[in-house]
Amino acid sequence: MPTECNASAMDFGSAGGRRVVADFDGGRVSSDAGALLLGETDKAIGLIDRFTRCFRDGRDPRYTEHRLKTLLAQRVFGLALGYEDLVDHDQLRHDPVLCVLLGKLERHADEMAPLAGKSTLNRLEHMPGAEGQARRYHKIDHDETSIERLFVDVFVEAHGKKPPRRIVLDLDATDDPLHGHQEGRFFHGYYDGYCYLPLYIFCGRHLLAAKLRRSNIDASAGSVEEVRRIIAQVRSRWPQVRIILRADSGFAREALMAWCEANKVDYVFGLARNQRLEQRIAPALAQAQGRSRANQGRPARVFCDFLWSTKGSWSRRRRVIAKAEWTGGEANPRFLVTSLKPDAWRAQPLYEELYCARGEMENRIKECQGDLFADRTSTATMRANQLRLWFASIAYVLVCALRRIGLAHTQFAAASCGTLRLKLLKIGALVRISVRRVKIAFASACPVIPEWRLAAARLAWARGSPV
Known about the structure:
Transposase Inhibitor Protein From Tn5, Chain A, domain 1; globular; alpha+beta; 3-stranded antiparallel beta sheet; 467 residues; 16 helices
C-alpha cells in the first residue's frame, strides 16, 4: 500500500503504535452545530424578523447577493457563537451549519452558497449619518426608535398573557474602554482611561435599553428620557403594573426622582455619603461600634430611617435609609433615598433584600460585555458603535430566550451566556447534504445530550411544531 504524504499535515506523536497526524481537511464539519438551537429560538420569538423590520434596505434587488435578514442574522449568530470580529466571517462564511441555518442552499442540492464576508458586513455597520453624506456604498440604514422599542416588546411578550404585579428596573452606567480615536472619546477620571459610558437598563435578566454615550457626562444623563420611554411602553400593555427603579448613587438626582414622584413610579437609589449625613447617624455608628467590640470585633450594623433634604438641590424632603456599620475597626456608613413607605418596607429589609439585589445587574453587564462583546466599539463613529452595541444586545436577548424557553429547570437554567455557548453551542458535527435532506451528525460523546434534546423539543413546541 503506497504511503500517503501530505506536506500540510501536523504530527502529534504516536498512540497505540500508530502515528497521530492532523490537518484541516475534514470537509463539511462544523464546530458550531449547536447554533441550530439559536435558529429555533429565533423562530420561537421572531427576533431577527422584527430586528430586520427596523432597517431600511435601499439596495437594488437585481444585484443583491445577501438578503438583509441574512446579513443581520449572520452578525447576531456570530456574536452569540463567540466571533466578535468581522474578519472572522471570511472563514465563518463557509461554515456548513451556519449556511444551513441561514438558508444558503440555493444553487445545487450538494453545494452551499457562502455567507457574507467581512467587507459586506462592514458596509452594513458603517451606515450613513447626516443628510448629504455620501451614500454610494451605504444603502442600508436603521430606525433607532424601532430598535429601542424592540427590546421592550420582547420583554413584555416573555411574560405571556399574565402581567406581573410588580417589576424592578435596574439602571447602571459602565465604562467601555477605547483604544483608538473614536468619535465622542473622552478621558474619564474614575475609570482612569478613555472610554464611552453606556447606560444599561435591565429587569431581572431582560435587557430593556443599551444606550451608548460619551463619558464627559454625569452617570444619570439621559436616564429620565430612557425611563420615560420604557415605562410608557410597558404601561401601554400593563396599565396596572407597579414599577420600582433601582440604581446606585449616580442616579440619585433631582430630575429623575421628581419625575418618578410625578408619574407614580417608586425608586430606591444609593445616596452618596457626606459629613452632614454622617453626623446625622453618629449615635447609630457609636451603637454599632459598641456591638462590634462586645462581639470580639465582628461587624455590626444598625439601621436608621429618617426624612432628609439637601441644602439646595432637592425640591422636597425624602425618606433616607442609613446603614450604620462598624467593620474592620472603622465606620462604614451607607445611605439610600427612596419613595417607598415605611409601612411597606422597613429599613433593614429594604436595604438588604431590595437594594442589595441590584448587584445582580453587574453580572448581566458582564455577560453583555464579556460574553457577547458589547464593548467592541472600535469603529470611527458613535452611530456605528451604537449599532454594534445593539447587535451584541440582540445576541444577548436571543441567548436569554434560549435559556428561558428551552432550559428552564435544568442545570443551565441560570447559566451565563458564556457557559451556554461552551456547553450547548460549540458542538462538533459532520454535515451531509443529499437531494432530500441535510443530516447534521453531532459528536456522539457530547456530554449534554439530554439537555440539548430537551431544549430543542421545548423550542419546537414554542413555535408550534413537533420535532
